[in-house]
Write a structure and sequence with these properties.
heterodimer; A: 7 helices; elongated; B: two-stranded antiparallel ribbon
């Protein structure tokens, strides 16, 4: 009886009225080009900030001749290049291999989410920390060269407050970036848990 | 065939030819498959377009190691599963295994009596509602079963063992028998 009902339902399923999508080849080519453009734009957005930061600190190297400031700015640029490399190596989104079997497809989704989560969790080590030495040395160098100015002793208090505030601002930005990424990692973990729920077989 | 003034190049590539063959042979099946994954007609149309695009793109790498049919269904199910995962994140809708449906009590005689008067469309709607509450793997299996595929082919598409597929199919049959005792006869 089960087989008979199964066959009846199958017949019903296969004989239902359908409206197959008619996509012409030129339409597909156009859609594929549009999709490729979107991917290119997204990649450009991901890397756009780094050359800008590198250019700003390059300008500072030229503008501020004090050796310590120059060394600090050089370290910042090196840090930015390292971040770019890490973004390229670990951060680039990978498309799902379309023809993968179901198990592989779900595993791929899970691995991608875990990779992104780990990237966000480790943001202090690969994104923020590489910039800290350069920023600290550059700031210290600027402080020292400012204090060497003939009029500096008269305004020492204001200079110290100014540098203190700048330091506090940079530290606050770093902490906010770190916290935002931890929050993002927790969100990804919830997605991983939801995926596990979808995948789990009883 | 043209769009925005662009016409198909004179030399249709192997990828284009394979896509055309796949669309001609499995176009209707892909439409039915999309119905199993998305209830909303507009979003279903988008999903179907996404499947066709992914299929065309993937066929650039088709090496004949599996049949075109297996390839088409793998791509379609993967795109649709990704769609379910995305939607699941947004809706947090609870999806269940076929085993969970199997444990539900069978219909009473009164309910079957009501079903007897329902038309084919209603039975199909009920079948779709049943499919759409399943987790992705079970959904792939039931949709493949409804397309008359055997356990070996379903195993090839899903990547799970034929034995597991056979067990699942047995459960699917039980569920269909309990839910469509009368309604299934409309398909005759």
């Amino acid at each position: 009886m089960e087989n008979e009902i199964g066959d009846n339902v199958k017949n019903l399923w296969k004989n239902q009225q359908v409206e197959p999508v008619q996509i012409s080849l030129p339409e597909l080519h156009q859609k594929a080009r549009k999709f490729e453009k979107q991917v290119r734009r997204r990649n450009l957005r991901e890397y756009a900030a780094s050359p800008i930061v590198a250019a700003i600190f390059g300008y500072y190297i030229w503008k501020f001749p004090a050796p310590l400031v120059r060394f600090g700015n050089f370290l910042v640029i090196a840090g930015v290049l390292f971040v770019m490399y890490m973004l390229h190596k670990r951060g680039a989104a990978r498309p799902v291999p379309a023809e993968m079997a179901f198990r592989g497809c779900l595993d791929f989704h899970r691995q991608e989410l875990e990779r992104q989560r780990d990237l966000l969790r480790g943001v202090w080590t690969w994104y923020l920390l590489p910039l800290v030495p350069g920023m600290a040395i550059s700031l210290l160098g600027m402080f020292i060269s400012t204090m060497q100015h003939p009029n500096a002793p008269a305004h020492a208090r204001f200079i110290m407050i100014g540098f203190g505030l700048t330091f506090a601002f940079i530290a606050a930005v770093f902490i906010v970036i770190g916290k935002l990424n931890q929050w993002g990692a927790r969100k990804l973990q919830r997605k991983i848990d939801a995926l596990d729920g979808l995948e789990k077989e009883s | 065939m043209s769009m925005n003034g662009e016409s198909i190049p004179a030399a249709v590539t192997r990828q284009d030819a394979l896509y055309q063959e796949a669309a001609d042979s499995y176009g209707a099946a892909l439409d039915r498959l999309a119905r199993g994954y998305e209830a909303d007609p507009d979003r279903r149309r988008d999903l179907l377009q996404e499947i066709h695009l992914a299929l065309w793109q993937s066929l650039a790498g088709f090496d004949g190691r599996c049949s075109l049919r297996t390839w088409v269904y793998r791509v379609a199910h993967n795109v649709a599963t990704s769609h379910v995962i995305r939607e699941h994140r947004v809706n947090s809708r609870i999806l269940v295994d076929i085993e969970a449906l199997e444990t539900l009590p069978a219909k009473s005689d009164d309910e079957r009596d009501i079903d007897r008067h329902y038309d084919r469309r209603h039975v199909l709607e009920k079948l779709l509602a049943l499919i759409q509450q399943l987790k992705p793997l079970d959904r792939q299996i039931i949709l493949s079963y409804l397309e008359d595929m055997d356990a070996a082919l379903i195993a090839e598409i899903t990547g799970i063992s034929p034995g597991n597929v056979a067990t699942k199919i047995h459960r699917i049959k039980n569920v269909l028998a309990s839910k469509f005792h009368e309604g299934g006869n409309h398909g005759k």
